[in-house]
Amino acid sequence: MDLTSLEIFRAVAAEQSVTRAAQQLQRVQSNVTTRIQQLEDELGVPLFQRDGKRMALTDKGREFLAYAERLLALAAEARQAMHPDLASGTLRLGSMESTAASRLPAVLARYHRECPAVSLEVSTGTSQALIEGVLSSRLDCALVAHPDALHREDLAGQALERGLCASPVFHEELVMVLPPDHPPAASPGDIRVGTLACFARGCTYRLLAERWLAEHRSEGTPLQVREVGSYHAILACVSAGDSAGIVPRSVLALYRESPALTALAVMPVDTLLVWREGYATAAFERLRESLLAR
């Protein structure tokens, strides 16, 4: 078992194809196939189920992938740690959709100018998925909203949970957007639509909105949820007239022509930069400095 074999295994797991993994890694197919077979022989378990050309992880394969991710992340961190004054290598940053759209463009442009040797990989997801990505070493750090951090004032670099450190970097105001023809609303009890347009479970903003609405809805009145994949879709559902939507005000500010919707303030929420305890590379430290100095 060596790092090259782990990288090949991870690529095949991600692509679910030897052919595509070989193309990505710029290796011949036979070499990729041989490496996977050698790894399975060494471990004594099948890592993939072969279905024609499709390669799907077995249960043992999924278990081993978690170890492979951690080993590869630790190796990358070790290489970067040997040059603590040089920001280089790859940094994998996760972000909520709203943060990526409204907060990151200027910050990352400046970061790229200051740290051109860093290959920055940015992906988006719900806060829960991003936190799990950091804990499993699929991500090096992430920008999330965490419900347990709503009332904490001491999070500047402190432990949040399960070996996770956090620092507040952005301050958001969540608003509930209502259809154009909705009667005037001054409080949650005035909301007349029964459907909430939001992201999938794992989204902290959705969780907070559900709690906020549940506290003010009549007992026995169910809240319907319409899961969508973008803020454009949330605003489209609200504009159609049968849904409310939970949105950071900074996202609404991105629209040159603001939708003719009512925005009812819900609560302030901090966006946190989270990382694993002990994780420290020059690339990450420069990013954290850029976020705090925005």
TrEMBL record:
The protein's UniProt keywords, in alphabetical order, are: Coiled coil, DNA-binding, Transcription, Transcription regulation
Q: Which GO terms describe its molecular function?
A: DNA-binding transcription factor activity; transcription cis-regulatory region binding
Q: What InterPro entries does the record tag this protein with?
A: LysR_HTH_N, LysR_subst-bd, WH-like_DNA-bd_sf, WH_DNA-bd_sf
Q: Does the keyword Lyase apply?
A: no
Q: Which residues form the HTH lysR-type domain?
A: 1-58
Coiled-coil positions: 11-42
Q: Which family does it belong to?
A: Belongs to the LysR transcriptional regulatory family.
The protein in question is named Transcriptional regulator
Recorded source organism is: Pseudomonas solani
